């Protein structure tokens, strides 16, 4: 699936009630077109996200973004977990992939939380975004910390803008909300 075909596919979806499975399969089909992705980067079609040098925007429109993210090897700080302001599907494009540390959290509880409040976090579990696999991040029911990969890795993201929520940062030890970024 080419980028143009993928974009058309996403446009035809009801993004207010996304079929995550179908979108993930389509993202995987596009992600397998490595030659086209490399060509897009070489032609300078992708725009570097101004806030994050390792992030390239392959396509942007009002309801969704397709971007590529580079992950250099290293060790990340996992003291704080965060939620996302928009649902995101990610695909392991290259390299061994990133490990993510996750905790289930309660959207209802977060919705009324203020900075300094303690909130419930479920038992931690991990997910490795292995090559050619996908993973779905809902907005406010899964808090996570991104670990860095063992070797250089690249992931491809589809971010849906349909239902933006505030982004919450929670300290894993104290379970307290340390920051809330408005949607
Ligand atoms: Fe994240």
3D architecture notes:
This protein is α+β, with helices and mostly antiparallel strands and 183 residues long. The chain has a single domain (3-181), classed as Jelly Rolls. 20% of the residues lie in helices and 35% in strands. The protein contains 4 helices and 12 strands, in the order H-H-H-E-E-E-E-E-E-H-E-E-E-E-E-E. It has helices spanning 3-12, 20-31, 34-42, 107-111, and strands spanning 47-48, 55-61, 64-71, 80-82, 88-94, 99-104, 125-128, 134-137, 142-146, 153-160, 167-171, 177-181. A 6-stranded antiparallel β-sheet has the order 1-2-3-10-5-8, with helices on one face. Helix 1 (3-12) packs antiparallel against helix 2 (20-31). The protein is globular, with a radius of gyration of 16 Å. It starts with a helix and ends with a strand. The model has no long low-confidence stretch (mean pLDDT 93). The protein binds fe (ii) ion. Fe (ii) ion binds at residues 82, 84, 144, 146.
């Amino acid at each position: 699936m080419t980028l143009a075909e993928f974009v058309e596919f996403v446009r035809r979806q009801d993004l207010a009630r996304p079929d995550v499975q179908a979108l993930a399969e389509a993202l995987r089909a596009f992600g397998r077109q490595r030659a086209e992705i490399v060509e897009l980067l070489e032609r300078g079609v992708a725009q570097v996200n101004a806030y994050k040098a390792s992030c390239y925007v392959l396509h942007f429109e009002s309801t969704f973004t397709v971007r590529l993210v580079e992950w250099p090897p290293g060790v990340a700080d996992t003291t704080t977990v965060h939620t996302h302001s928009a649902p995101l599907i990610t695909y392991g494009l290259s390299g061994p992939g990133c490990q993510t540390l996750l905790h289930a959290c309660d959207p209802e509880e977060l919705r009324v939380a203020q900075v300094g409040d303690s909130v419930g976090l479920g038992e931690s579990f991990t997910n490795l975004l292995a090559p050619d696999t996908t993973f779905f991040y809902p907005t406010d029911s899964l808090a996570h910390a991104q670990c860095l990969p063992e070797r250089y890795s690249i992931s491809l993201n589809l971010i849906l803008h349909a239902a933006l929520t505030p982004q919450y940062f929670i300290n894993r030890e104290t379970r307290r909300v340390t920051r809330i970024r408005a949607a």
